[in-house]
Write a structure and sequence with these properties.
Layout lengths: L13 E4 L5 E4 L2 H7 L5 H16 L4 H20 L4 H22 L11 H10 L9 H15 L59
Antiparallel strand pairs: 1-2
Helix pairs in contact: 1-2, 2-3, 5-6
Length: about 210
């Protein structure tokens, strides 16, 4: 968790003010699009496209919107020539198939080794370069890699992101963020005289569910 007003605004950042007066400072494409009030159906599809990219990959949100916009621009030219929309869609599907086949040919293996996480950390640093946490990029990259490797099924090459939760708290600094391997219970003290010291002697605990 962090306090946004403490962050220095850089040249690439955008300041957005909501109708309620809430201020957001970011240069992340998905965040910018999600804050925009769009009514056009195609524009809404662009916002959904960016969100899907962010949910699935976590990076490249601006790139997919730019690429989709370029494809739509070329499609408009083809429509003006009298080409049927279905033919245009089929052509794009064939082009996507050829592109994926070529990517498979030139792709290089990226082995994942828990004993050597530096390549993964460098990859995470690249994706965090355009995020608000970039000034603490190394710390957050290490936390992200550690969190992923903690829940990843390396044999199936699968990661369940449902097992990772981000809990935000108002106040503090970016440097105060930490990875907790366990369960966080957000509970206030029921009595002012309850001890607030952190105990490390507890081997197990029972949590009643009501």
């Amino acid at each position: 968790a962090w306090d946004q007003p403490r962050r220095a605004i850089t040249a690439g950042d955008k300041i957005m003010v909501s109708p309620d007066g809430d201020i957001t400072v970011t240069n992340d494409g998905a965040t910018i699009l999600s804050k925009m009030d769009v009514e056009h159906q195609i524009a809404k599809l662009m916002v959904q496209l960016s969100k899907s990219q962010d949910d699935e990959i976590g990076d490249g949100t601006t790139g997919v919107v730019v690429l989709a916009g370029a494809l739509l621009e070329q499609a408009e030219v083809l429509l003006e020539r009298g080409i049927h929309p279905i033919r245009i869609a089929d052509g794009y599907e064939n082009a996507a198939r050829v592109a994926v086949e070529h990517l498979d040919k030139i792709a290089e293996d990226f082995p994942v080794d828990k004993a050597n996480t530096e390549p993964l950390i460098e990859t995470a640093l690249t994706t965090l370069g355009s995020k608000i946490v970039n000034r603490c990029g190394r710390k957050f990259a290490e936390m992200a890699v550690d969190a992923i490797l903690s829940v990843a099924d390396l044999e199936r090459k699968d990661v369940s992101f449902d097992l990772i939760k981000i809990e935000c708290k108002t106040g503090g600094r970016l440097e105060d963020s930490q990875l907790v391997k366990g369960v966080i219970i957000d509970k206030t003290m029921s009595h002012s005289q309850m001890p607030k010291e952190k105990s490390t002697d507890c081997d197990s605990a029972l949590i009643p569910l009501l």
